[in-house]
Amino acid sequence: MDENEKQYTYIVQASLEPSKCKIGKTNDLDIHLKEYNNVPKENIYQYLFTCEVANMAVVENDIKENFGYLREVKTKEIYFYNPDLLDRYVKFIKSHPLFEEEIFIKEDEKKEIVKIVRKFSPSLKERGLTTVDVINKAKKTKNDEFYTRYEDIEKEILMYDKDTWKDKCVFCNCDDAVDNDERKSSAFSLFFIKNFKELGLKKLICTHYGGGLDLVNQGAKGYIFTYIFTKKGFKALKEYPKGYTGSFDDPLSLKILNEEADIVCTNPPFSKTIEYWKIVVESGKKFLIISNIANVVTTAYIPFFRNNQVWAGYSEVDDFLNFKRQITRAAGYWYTNIPIKDRPKYKQLKIVSLKDIPEKYKKYDDNGMLIVDNCYIPNNYNLPFAVSARPILNGLLEKGYHLISDNVYHPYLGGEMKFARVLVQKI
Ligand SMILES: C[S@@+](CC[C@H](N)C(=O)[O-])C[C@H]1O[C@@H](n2cnc3c(N)ncnc32)[C@H](O)[C@@H]1O
After folding, report:
1. Please, are residues 280 and 255 in contact by the beta-carbon 8 Å criterion?
2. Most buried among 59, 179, 188, 354, by the most CB within 10 A?
3. Is 131-336 in CATH node 1.10.3470?
């Protein structure tokens, strides 16, 4: 390639695929866009962002590494799109050391997020909704209102030893509704009801939160659903105690947590995760919950990982259902305090001598702090160094390294702030 040839990183979107964008590289932005718009005619491609970079291949690679979990498939540079994600992509590119100059950013990026990837859509009638209900719910919906999919719960829970569940009382305390109609039940409730005997559970308690969007049409009153197995068979009871909200911090919910629950299992609302973690983690009960993948590198949660009160479960959860029961993407992960046996993700850690870490995956920031990427970990470096969330999720803290600060670490390279990390050190 001609050394003087310009290099560009771009984000382009097709009008017929509003939930995705391509983040690519080219030497000629104009010709590239024309090529995209060649066929088919009704699918119009537009740039959302373009910029000049010093080395487009390196930038592209770093984007793949950083946003791998937001790629549609591993073989293409197609990423999930919504205005928040675009903002993150653009920030990342602009803070990259090889970024040179912004050329274009599309102004009208405030259009509503459309994150539909695949459809699973019972009719409105089947769901007992009218068009007006749907419009009202759409107006109110936010990240809190995602359902967990049954298969994601099954996949994680079945990884744990059967003894974990035997004779235990499971408490699902974030709008885990139960109804005769499965479509109006939370997948957590359904999973534990269906697998009650198989897991050897003693009791299941699920609560419905009356204050939210009411994703599953269970009404504005909080309730407590209890399920046990007696000599006479299964016994289910739904109670609506006076004044009970169904909130995880309602006095009655706290009483159940402290006096009855052995294992708490749910997907709490993203907007209240800090309060939720504080209550559940500090209750001393076992838990298996879904939260944001970035909690590991967020100051509010780092102390829990540092004090060994929380660690990653087995799997990531990328797909949820929105109020229309359509798949929507969000970066979730299972977190727990239940022992993980031979964590399969240890295999993804590359613990090697510092000299064997490829140059592109080790840098020193403006403070001289070593930053390692791509799950490379030096085994002969005794000073603190910075890692992203991934190695922690892959079990680094179980491999002879510990977190040395309760705070997130933001490296600066050439004066530019990079994405969040945490500081670890070999014990
Ligand atoms: C991410 S959704 C998950 C729903 C369900 N647990 C599942 O996994 O499908 C979080 C739910 O918590 C509800 N919620 C919001 N605030 C709550 C609170 N204070 N206590 C309990 N649930 C709450 C929301 O309305 C929403 O239905």
Report:
1. no
2. 188
3. no
Q: Would you say the CB of residue 63 lies under 6 angstroms from ligand 1? A: no
How high is the pLDDT of residue 132?
52
CA of 212 to the centre of ligand 1 (A): 7
The finding on whether 176 has its CB within 6 A of some atom of ligand 1 is: yes
Predicted confidence (pLDDT) at residue 139 exceeds the cutoff of 50: no
Q: Which atom of ligand 1 is nearest to the CA of 321?
A: 9
Does 189 sit in the ligand 1 pocket, CB within 6 Å? no
pLDDT at residue 182, as a whole number: 82
* Of 198, 195, 188, nearest in space to 288 by CA: 188
Ligand 1 centre distance from Cα of residue 147 (Å): 8
Residue 121 CA to ligand 1 center (angstroms) comes to 21
| Mutation to probe ligand 1, out of 175, 183, 216, 325 (largest number of atoms < 8 A from CB) | 175
**How many Å apart are CA 146 and CA 175, to the nearest integer?**
11
pTM of the model: 0.71
Residue 120 scores a pLDDT above 50: no
| 85 touches 79 (CB < 8 A) | yes
250 Cβ below 6 A of ligand 1: no
Q: What is the dihedral angle through the alpha carbons of 82, 85, 91, 92, rounded to the nearest 10 degrees? A: -140
What's the chain's average pLDDT? 87
Q: Judge whether 300 and 274 are in contact, CB under 8 Å.
A: yes
Residue 207 CA, closest ligand 1 atom number: 21
Q: What are the tens digits of pLDDT across the range 274-305?
A: 999 999 999 999 999 999 999 999 999 999 99
Indicate the domain borders of the chain.
Answer: 8-105, 131-336, 346-426
More confident residue, 80 or 415: 415
pLDDT given at position 41: 65
Q: Which of 300, 250, 304 is nearest to 270 (CA)?
A: 300
Select from 230, 219, 319, 193 the least CA-distant residue to 267: 319
